[in-house]
Write a structure and sequence with these properties.
alpha+beta; Lambda Exonuclease, Chain A; three-stranded antiparallel beta sheet
Length: 220
């Protein structure tokens, strides 16, 4: 795939601001997109799940998922940049490698051009975050996100993923005067089942409105 560094992306340090993840941006410290979504989401299901499996088991599962997701993302990032990919013989490393191969074959093969990988973005005065990939997907400017999952998901379960990417698209459009109106989420389960969620057109506009509502709720 073609890498076209057409924008001057800013490196932003992560910091802790009043106990929440934030980024140091050219407009000051701003809360992260993930923090805003976390503070404004309905956690009823999560609370019930933790009660059902127990705190120790819930913490173990969460830690394992984070570790797998980190290595999975690094595989894809390094593949795009032409860097050596992570090596390891334990279960997490092997699983991450297998899952990343599925996404490379079925998802990244549709990326025509890369503008940036693991890019820090911010909306002046409001929020900041890091998007997995920005570029051209099947002819259209797109925010692309990678997700690992224990099992395949229904579309209604990825609502916050859509909102997260809408936030990145809006930030990119504001700072770089682009017109990104498409989101693609590339997802692979631990059993190698691939899913692709696409959000554009009226659906994209609707999700942007919902993100704006969550943002307003956070600042209230």
């Amino acid at each position: 795939m073609v890498i076209n560094e057409k924008f001057d992306y800013v490196l932003m340090d992560r910091t802790d601001l009043n106990g929440r993840r934030s980024y140091m941006t050219p407009t000051g410290a701003l809360p992260s997109v993930t923090t805003i979504l976390d503070k404004t989401k309905d956690k009823t299901f999560l609370i019930e799940w933790r009660k059902r499996v127990g705190e120790d088991e819930a913490n173990r599962i969460s830690k394992e998922a984070v570790g797998l997701g980190t290595v999975f993302h690094k595989h894809l990032e390094n593949y795009i940049l032409g860097k050596p990919r992570p090596e390891g013989n334990n279960l997490v490393y092997k699983l991450a490698e297998e899952m990343s191969e599925v996404v490379i074959e079925k998802g990244l093969s549709n990326i025509d051009e890369v503008w940036g990988s693991e890019i820090g973005l911010y909306y002046p005065g409001l929020y900041a975050g890091t998007t997995d990939l920005v570029g051209i997907h099947k002819g259209k400017p797109t925010i692309i996100d990678y997700k690992s999952t224990t099992r395949p998901k229904r579309e209604e379960w990825v609502e916050d993923y859509y909102l997260q990417c809408c936030a990145y698209a809006m930030a990119h459009n504001e700072v770089f005067k682009t017109k990104i109106k498409k989101i693609v989420i590339l997802m692979c389960s631990r059993e190698g089942q691939y899913q692709e969620f696409i959000c554009d057109g009226k659906k994209f506009e609707n999700k942007c409105d919902k993100w704006t509502q969550r943002l307003e709720e956070f600042y209230k």
